[in-house]
Structure formats: structure tokens, C-alpha cells
Amino acid sequence: MPSSKDLESFKKTIQSLLSVAVGNDISDFSDIATIATTSLIQQPFMTAEEVKSVEEEDPAPSKIDKVAMDRYIKLVRGGLQIEPRISNSHITVVANRNSGDKILRIHCRGGAAISGYVYDSLNDCYCVKGVDYCTLGYVPIGFKLVMEQSNWTIDIPVPENVLRLFMTKRQKTDLKNFKDHYKDCKIYFLQLVD
Q1: From CA 55, how far away is CA 98, in angstroms rounded?
Q2: Between β-strands 80-84 and 186-193, what pairing exists: parallel, antiparallel or unpaired?
Q3: Smallest Cα–Cα separation from 175: which of 113, 92, 105, 107?
Q4: Cβ-contact 135, 178 below 8 angstroms
Q5: 95-108, pLDDT tens digit by residue?
Q6: What's the CA gap between 124 and 138, in Å, rounded?
Q7: Claim: this prediction has a pTM higher than 0.70
Q8: Pairing label, strands 125-130, 102-107
Q9: pLDDT, tens digit (0-9, with 9 covering 90-100), for 25-60
Q10: Are 143 and 85 in contact (CB under 8 A)?
């Protein structure tokens, strides 16, 4: 509720607007109402002191305890589903050392990366930081995350243990050789979707 001081200020604003309206020959009351409403919107409904008193009465939680956060996470998970995607995933394995890495240019092969990699549209490739990479080819699996109560959907990466189930013998051998060669590196998968 506005204070009496604010109401008095608003009353004076309306009076001055009416005198301006008459002086400018504005005869339509809707114009006056528009001017008054605009003025009202610019006026704060609560003074700084009133806002402070409300915040002191009911302060916003500065941190959520772990039990409450776990409950929220369960609620969010309950609204999400993982569904199969009807397309192939193109898999490239990247070795990353964090020192001595260079910018690798990995050809897109017409696909879009699942994660946020830099795309070079001139050369149709993704730029990633790493020591080396190995293209394994396509696997006939992919997944998307879907929110049940909306039309939101997003492609998600497939974990290595699931990818291995769909890899050919040759792909598994190439992956093993690459990992053996770069034992001192962190290995991750760049996954492209059709």
C-alpha cells in the first residue's frame, strides 16, 4: 500500500497533468488517463524503507540446504525422460593433455556437435583443443533428453560404456590403440548427430 506521502505526490501529479491537458486542448479523457497511468508507472509503489521492512520480515533464502536441494533435483529428474534418437552418431576420440595441446580441426561430416564446440563454417569443421584425434566412424545409437510437460528436447552424449555396445570390432580396436598411445592424456568423445 502506498504511503500517504506517495498518494499526495500522485494527486499533485494528476492535478498538474490535468492543467497541461486543458492548456493543450486535450478533450478526450482517455488521453488524460494514459498520461496519468504513465506517470503512475514511473512512481515507485513502495519506498525504499518499505522494501527494506518487507525484506527483514521475510528474507529470501541465501542458501538452500542439501536435503532441500536433493528433493528439488529428484523433482526435476521426474519430469525428464531419455528417449532413443532415430539417427546415427559420428564418433571421434580426442586426446587432451592440457599442456602442449593445439587447436585440432575435426571435419563435421554433415553433423552437428552435441556439446558446445567452436564451429568453423568456412572449413566445415569443429575446432577443439587437444594433442590428437581418431575418427571411429558411425554408431547406430543416439539419445535425447525430453521434458514431459513441454516440447523441449535436446540431444545428449552417449556414455562410453553404451557406445562400446554398438561399436564394431574395428572401432573397438582403433579406440584401444588410440588410448594405449595416449595413456598420459585425458580421452573424450566428440559426438556428432546427423
Answers
A1: 47
A2: unpaired
A3: 92
A4: no
A5: 998 887 899 999 88
A6: 18
A7: no
A8: antiparallel
A9: 444 444 444 444 444 444 445 566 765 665 566 555
A10: yes
Report the C-alpha gap between 192 and 194 in whole angstroms. Answer: 7
Category of 38 on φ-ψ map: left (φ > 0), alpha (ψ -120 to 50) or beta: alpha
Q: What does the DSSP assignment read for the chain? A: ---HHHHHHHHHHHHHHHHHHHHTT---HHHHHHHHHHHHHHS-SS-HHHHHHHHHHSPPPSS--HHHHHHHHHHHHHTEEEEE-SS-EEEEEEEE-SSS-EEEEEE-TT-EESS-PEEETTTTEEEEEESEEEEEEEES--EEEEETTSS-EEEEPPPHHHHHHH--HHHHHHHHHHHHHTTTSEEEEEEEE-
Q: Specify the amino acid at residue 12.
A: K
Cell 497533468 locates to: 17
